[in-house]
From TrEMBL:
Keywords: Hydrolase, Metal-binding, Nuclease, Nucleotide-binding, Nucleus, RNA-binding. One of its GO terms (biological process) is nuclear-transcribed mRNA catabolic process. PANTHER family: DECAPPING AND EXORIBONUCLEASE PROTEIN, DOM-3 RELATED. The keyword Nucleus applies. GO terms for molecular function: metal ion binding; mRNA 5'-diphosphatase activity; nuclease activity; nucleotide binding; RNA binding. Belongs to the DXO/Dom3Z family. Its cofactor is a divalent metal cation. It holds the Pfam family RAI1. Decapping enzyme for NAD-capped RNAs: specifically hydrolyzes the nicotinamide adenine dinucleotide (NAD) cap from a subset of RNAs by removing the entire NAD moiety from the 5'-end of an NAD-capped RNA. GO terms for cellular component: cytosol; nucleus. This is Decapping nuclease.
Amino acid sequence: MTPEPCRALVPRRLLDSSDPPQCPLPALLGKPTQVACSSLCGGKLRVDSTAALRYFVYPPAKADLKSGYDQLTYKQRTKTSRGLEDIFAMCLKSKNSEQLLDVQVITWAGIVKRIMLGKKMHLNVSFHNGILYIESHCPPEWYIDIGTSRVLSIRDPQTYWGYNFETLCSSETPQGPSGGTVNLQTHFSVAVVRKIGSLKLLLVGDVDCVKPEYIQNPGPEHYVELKLKTFEQDRSRPVLKDKWEMQSLLLGGRKILVGYTNKAGVLRNVKTLSVPGPSVANHRRIDWGVRVLHSLIEYCGKAQQDEGVLKVWRLELGK
């Protein structure tokens, strides 16, 4: 892992998995608490809004996941890159803004998941008033330029199958019906505060859908994660299950619904996976993630200002 300042400075190795731990381990997961939510509808962010919330329903049997792909408009099949701006809006505008800022790390749950899984990626990191901020630094080739914005596009039908599966497994009302039009411009996000080891984190992430009980008691125990795989990919299920569990664990979700398709894109079966707690493998991954975060806080906290200007580091992580 190498911190790389945005200026032309010599990169420095910050942490290796063989280094001795510099923080208390094992890093135990504290209870997650939802402190805010937001809805992204038509490119506009609404804080403390459930306008984009969808409820879990079982999908129709033998659904054709290819259906509707040819009718998608360009806007519906594209997704704007999201940095820290949406999180800042939640922190500043939410009725629980004080709770959101009483933490040591603020970032997207997906970024922490990838750190814990040891994925190679580039991040932007800064440290201000005792809080570590992390966002993705996305390579330009991942995106398509449209004016001054960058968007991620559904480039192939199989990617569409996954989004269509999510649509078929959710409804705008608890009673159904399921379905609708795939639209990457609409997202429901939650902000969850929890302790991981000795660190207190604010993690923000998209929620595919929720159980109907969410209405009376909004909380992580009602989040439902949706995944889609082909029968041929099921051979790697133990490994995939660990990765899926990690994604749900960080936000506190306890249920994963997995759909299986054939090569023609027809839904053949669904299975429900419970997420009672981290596996042995994921315990090790959580420890590694906490070590990375501790190292960043220590390193960036020593040199957070440069002549009054807030520093931003470019961080490179490798396997």
